[in-house]
Specification:
Blueprint lengths: L10 H9 L11 H46 L3 H24 L5 H9 L8 H22 L16 H24 L8 H20 L5 H11 L7 H20 L3
Length: about 260
């Protein structure tokens, strides 16, 4: 009977099973090698779940702190506009340094799509990243809506300011800038990688300071979709998907084109 072909990852195990019926005079594979092969396969399969967990928790923290800051400011007037943007910048910096070595700390579907567009994130991992990010953002928004009284998560929903296409252009530009900083500091071996958290957190806060009143300054589909789902407010949500995604991908392509290999 013709045997079915086996994948490379299961060759050692298949060989061992076949030898149970073969001549005892034939060489047997080293049992330690077989065990190591099984362990490596399990490790590779579990790694993506660890990355997914890191992205889910990281995006939860981003929305919980950032959108929580917006809600607290709307209710108590204690943070100020500058303080809210500082919260976003500081929490992004902290997330990058604490979880960046596990999943890359994308915390943003637009960033994950940009990484995939330039070959730095596999197509297999991409949907897992995006689902984890949106789940984390939605969970954070739902919790905030329950625990912060006398205000609603709706105050943190990003909506176009005036003409939606003007907000779209702003979102494209500021996410282009964000992606340029990310790829210039966190992915290029010639860059000062240890400063990536400061640079990315800093540009996020900077963009928020000058663009917050122009477009709402999302730069992140998960950050916009999560609160919108809980508030049931989808006014112009497409702006915060199309603008950041196209801006991040163009920023990644631009840096790849100008980087010195």
């Amino acid at each position: 009977m013709e045997k079915q072909s086996k994948t490379p990852s299961s060759v050692a195990v298949y060989y061992l099973e076949e030898q149970q019926y073969a001549s005892p005079h034939k060489n047997m594979p080293n049992m330690e090698d077989v065990k190591a092969t099984k362990a490596n396969n399990i490790f590779r399969e579990s790694t993506i779940y660890k990355k997914a967990a890191a992205e889910l928790v990281a995006t939860f923290i981003l929305v919980f702190a950032g959108c929580g800051g917006i809600m607290v400011e709307a209710r108590d007037n204690v943070l100020t506009y500058v303080g809210v943007n500082a919260v976003f910048g500081l929490v992004i910096m902290a997330i990058i340094y604490s979880l960046g070595h596990i999943s890359g700390a994308h915390i943003n579907p637009a960033v994950s799509l940009a990484f995939s567009a330039v070959g730095k994130l596999s197509v297999k991992e991409l949907p897992i990243y995006i689902v984890s990010q949106i789940a984390g953002a939605t969970a954070a928004a739902a919790l905030l809506n329950e625990i912060i009284t006398n205000t609603s998560i709706n105050v943190s929903v990003t909506v176009p300011v005036g003409n939606p296409f003007a907000s779209l252009v702003v979102e494209f530009i500021i996410t282009f800038i964000l992606a340029l900083v990310i790829f210039g500091t966190a992915t290029d071996p010639k860059a000062h990688g240890r400063m990536a958290g400061v640079a990315v957190g800093g540009i996020a806060a900077c963009n928020g300071l000058f663009a917050g009143t122009l477009s709402g300054c999302s730069m992140n589909p998960a950050r916009s979709v999560g609160p919108a789902l809980i508030a049931g407010n989808y006014n112009g949500v497409w702006v915060y998907i199309v603008g950041p995604v196209s801006g991040a991908i163009c920023g990644a392509w631009f840096y790849k084109a100008i980087s010195i290999q």
